[in-house]
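In line with agreed milestones, the collection of sequences with tokenised folds has grown. One record among many is set out beneath this paragraph:
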Amino acid sequence: MPAQTSKILPIPTPETETYWKGCAAHKLLIQYCTNCDHFQFYPRSICTQCMSRDIEWKTASGRATVVSYTVMHRSVSKAYGDEYPQILALVRLKEGPQMMSHIVDCRADKISIGMSVEVTFQDWTDEVSIPVFYPLSS
């Protein structure tokens, strides 16, 4: 794992700390409401469906479908310069919630809406891993 990076790193909050610890362990954790059986992402202190505080963390399957995407050709800083072009996508997790992420190991002319993808993690530092998705073959 890399020791440091000049990339912009996430700053965990009380609501997101468990999520980021899961990512560091290469687990995609999402919240689940035990009151109404609703999965949600991004992390919050209450259920967005029923407003309950009966929230648990569950490991997501890691499978998702591309809902929308854009291909970025310019870097936001030198720290990301060699990673372009880059595919930024909105994916819908098998469990239901949507999240923004990058699609890796996929040429820009091969990405498509409806494509099946699966999560993997990029280790940016010894403590920070970022979830990204790669296309599934079938």
Notes: The chain is about 5% helix and 40% strand. The first strand starts at residue 29 and ends at 33.
